[in-house]
Specification:
alpha+beta, GTP Cyclohydrolase I, domain 2, 4-stranded antiparallel sheet, two-stranded antiparallel ribbon, 3 helices, 26% strand
């Protein structure tokens, strides 16, 4: 059954032909919609292969990939608003680890998911790739959070 206009009132960016891009960090652009299947535990995976931010010291651009996996509760992030939010990091000066944790914190505040993880796969700078991983879980998903952290550690060590 399609969503009603009432259900879509909070989604203002999708289909908007007058999209405004914010060139500074802006979590206010994030929008949500209701999860129509809150009784089911399922995974949503979002992949942003063209993430950019700036080095906080040199102002040089950093390029990477951001992967967000989450198990929704009641609210879900709308993908166009997420795209605009991630774009808002374009001129934001912060370390890779900070960007990943900021994204995690903003999405936790926005959606209150059962579980969420943010993975950063940044292109090498100075011959070093940085791959930060951060996650958050409610009390019922703490074992999953520990297992995913361990799996990420093992996967990174195997590279």
């Amino acid at each position: 059954m399609p969503r009603s206009n009432e259900e879509l009132q909070s989604v203002t960016l999708l289909g908007n032909q007058n999209t405004q891009y914010h060139f500074g960090y802006n979590p206010g652009v994030l929008e949500t919609f209701d999860n129509k299947h809150p009784e089911r535990e399922y995974l949503v995976s979002l992949d942003c292969p063209e993430f950019t931010s700036l080095c906080p010291k040199t102002g040089q651009p950093d390029f990477g990939r951001i992967i967000i996996n989450y198990i929704p509760r009641i609210r879900m992030v709308e993908s166009k608003s997420l795209k605009l939010y991630l774009f808002s990091f374009r001129n934001h000066g912060d370390f890779h680890e900070d960007c990943v944790n900021i994204i995690l914190n903003d999405l936790v505040s926005l959606m209150d998911p059962k579980y969420i993880e943010v993975i950063g796969l940044f292109n090498p700078r100075g011959g070093i790739s940085i791959r930060p991983f951060a996650n958050h879980a409610d009390t019922q998903h703490q074992d999953l959070a520990r297992a995913r952290t361990l799996a990420h550690l093992q996967q990174t060590a195997a590279i």
